[in-house]
Write a structure and sequence with these properties.
Strand content: under 5%
Radius of gyration: 25 Å
Distance between the termini: 90 Å
Order of helices and strands: HHHHHHHH
Helix content: over 70%
Number of helices: 8
Shape: elongated
Number of strands: 0
Length: 177
């Protein structure tokens, strides 16, 4: 009888240990939902897909299919954002000597946004300031409002709150004028 009880506890221990191991490697539903959502919008909005992927907590702890999906999607998103940057830079080169200031401002703003999303804050700041310069030549108060907001946002990310406040305040002032 002792032998059967010992065997029973042994099997029960192995079963519980196996469940524990499997549960440690399971992926939370929220992460799987985020991966699925990123995959659905990858072609049409790669920057939004990248933002979703960047909000997945501790991606280095993913295992199996979730880890493979995350790596593939992140690579795709980065590749598509790089494509967008290439097109922005080509368009900027073509228009550089023109008087299409609003279009140049929009291009500079797009470049700034791509750099900000890659956490290249100084480069983003330069692009946003350049967009503000172009918008002031039009002048387009709505675009100038967005440019000031974007500059303020980068200063906020850089934890330079006085500068962030200055540009946010300037954006509000322009939008109310």
């Amino acid at each position: 009888m002792k032998m059967n009880t010992h065997s029973l506890f042994g099997y029960l221990f192995i079963a519980l240990f196996s469940l524990l191991v499997v549960s440690c490697y399971s992926t939370p539903d929220g992460v799987m939902s985020s991966l699925s959502q990123a995959e659905k919008i990858m072609e049409s909005r790669p920057d939004s897909a990248m933002a979703i992927l960047q909000h997945i907590p501790t991606p280095e702890t993913l295992h199996g299919k979730a880890q493979a999906d995350y790596s593939l999607l992140m690579t795709q998103a980065m590749d598509k954002v790089e494509d967008a940057m290439t097109f922005y830079l080509k368009a900027k080169d073509v228009l550089q000597s023109s008087d299409q200031f609003k279009l140049l401002g929009l291009i500079s703003e797009g470049i700034g946004t791509l750099n900000r999303k890659q956490k290249l804050f100084d480069t983003a700041l330069n692009s946003y300031k350049e967009s503000l310069t172009y918008y002031s030549l039009v002048p387009d108060s709505l675009c100038m409002t967005y440019a000031n907001r974007n500059i303020g946002r980068v200063f906020l990310y850089k934890n330079r709150l006085d500068s962030a406040y200055y540009y946010y305040d300037k954006a509000i002032y322009i939008s109310n004028a």
